[in-house]
Amino acid sequence: MLLSFFSEDKIEAGCDEAGRGCLAGPVVAAAVVLPHDYKHKVLNDSKQLSRKQREAIRLDVEKEAIAWAVSFVDNNEIDEVNILNASFLAMNRAVDQLETQPELLLIDGNRYKPHNEIPFECIIKGDGKYLSIAAASILAKTYRDEYMYKLAKEFPAYQWESNVGYPTKNHREAIRSHGVTDYHRKSFRLLPEQLELF
Question: What domain range includes position 140?
Answer without folding.
Answer: 12-148
